[in-house]
Amino acid sequence: MVTLPTTFTWGAATAAFQIEGDRAGRGETTWDAFCRVPGAVQDGTDGDVTCDHVNRYREDVRIMRDLGVGAYRFSVAWARVQPTGRGDFSAEGLGFYDRLVDELLGAGIEPWLTLYHWDLPVELQLQGGWASRRVVDPFVEYALGVQEALGDRVKRWATHNEPWCAAWLGYGGGIHAPGIRDHALATRATHHLLLSHGRAVAAMREQDADAAYGIVLNLDNVRATDDEAVTRAALPAYDAVRNRVWLDALAGRGYPADALDLLAPHLDGATVVGDMEQIATPVDFLGLNYYNDERLEAADGQVPVGDTVQPGMERVRTADPGAGATAMDWPVTPEGFTDVLRRLQAEYAELGPVYVTENGSAWDDDPTPSADGVIEDPDRVAYLQDHLRALEQARAEGVDVRGYFAWSLLDNFEWALGLSKRFGLVRVDFETQERTVKRSWHAYREHIAASGTARAAEPEAAAGA
């Protein structure tokens, strides 16, 4: 094991819609509406109950305390604290997060709060959602309201989780809520998500210059599995929209030229003077979510323009992941994890230190506990250990990565796949809500203990301080 600094942060992560339940306690979201569309969610489930975390958070915090993590990354459900996305805040909704934060701090666990993890209040979608500039001001208002309520105790803030998914799965491919398939709207959503991030960070830093602010991106490598010219030609286009649009804009470089070759026609009327400067508001850290590399191969024919999740992919497809793929049919590529971390250090160091805010895998676990009452999940244990070694390799090479959050603490609602895919270190029986730790929970606990690091790190000095 590579020696880590005593301030290295070990954590676990979840997201509001995926675990909270208690539908009666929040407003309607785009995901509530999406779940009612026949066939939109693979198993027909929804977010009404999931893990019932709103009512069982104390038990879940105890599980984290026993795991030994020093930090918990969670998201706030916008519609729980501001039911329509505008106007008055809900005392009941804010009260839940107030109690959760106090419970975490009482257990010696630092709260890491993500403001947006895809569950947009449905009233804002009726006004155009992220494809409309009209959502930017409400997001800033929401961010400031949550900070006013919790900022005396929460000092780690991320604006958005995986905005590529929010834009391109939600508005480009229609795979996620709101279920729209329109590259023009997805492009505008990309811009407005970035703009809302920059404006929110600037406004929140005015309220608290000592807290740390960042954004969480899902990044991966893209590799060719054949040597055909069409595949090689698609790699830069994939990387441009998946990775560099976000990174370059945040780093103050504007949108990359090859991305604009694909997206510029859709940005007409969406951008105004000063937007890119606001998007490039300095951040204190960059959150990285990594699961696997993307492997492409030439398709048999050309997909019609607009029918792909993102532009530039009309003549390629995702390659067969091969043996050992996860339950999501994702290849296991820990070497790609190291590569992404190296790239961030080499090309985007100005975005600050990196925290791995999600990393994990779904497998078809046998639900029968072993003799010691633990769920055996050897594939998840192997995935976890391989990726922790990959992270340590990056650290050994000088990459400034300062924390790791396992995804996910609990089995949960896996978006368009419903309750059918299990990422948790802890098994949840969705009928009884019984929690049972898995062998991976023990493996992670042992790794944390062996690292000798502190429970939590102090926030970096804010870039604007």
Characterise this structure:
The protein has 465 residues and is an alpha/beta fold. The chain has one domain (9-451): Glycosidases (TIM Barrel, Alpha-Beta Barrel), CATH 3.20.20. Helix content is 40%, strand content 14%. It contains 15 helices and 13 strands. The strands form 3 sheets. It has an 8-stranded parallel barrel, surrounded by 5 helices. Strands 6-8-9 form a 3-stranded mixed beta sheet, covered by helices on one side. A two-stranded antiparallel ribbon has the order 12-13. Helix 14 (378-396) links the parallel strand 10 (354-358) and strand 11. Helix 14 (378-396) runs parallel beside helix 15 (439-451). The longest helix is centred in the middle third of the chain and has 25 residues, at 183-207. It is globular, with a radius of gyration of 21 Å. The two termini are 35 Å apart. Residues 456-465 have low confidence and may be disordered.
- What oligomeric state best describes the polypeptide chains here? single chain
Number of helices: 15
Helix/strand-derived category reads alpha/beta
Our measurement of the CA-to-CA distance between the termini, rounded to an integer number of angstroms, reads: 35 Å
* Helix/strand order, N-terminal first: EHHHEHHEHHEHHEEHHHEEEHEHEEEH
CATH class category label: Alpha Beta
Q: Mind summarizing the main beta sheet?
A: 8 strands, parallel, barrel
Q: Within the CATH hierarchy, at the fold level, what is the topology?
A: TIM Barrel
The CATH H-level homologous superfamily: Glycosidases
Query: What is the helical fraction, as a range of percent?
Result: 25-40%
Number of strands: 13
* Gyration radius from CA atoms, angstroms: 21 Å
Overall number of structural domains: 1
Strand content: 5-15%
Identify the overall geometry.
Answer: globular
> Low-confidence spans: pLDDT under 50, at least 5 residues?
456-465
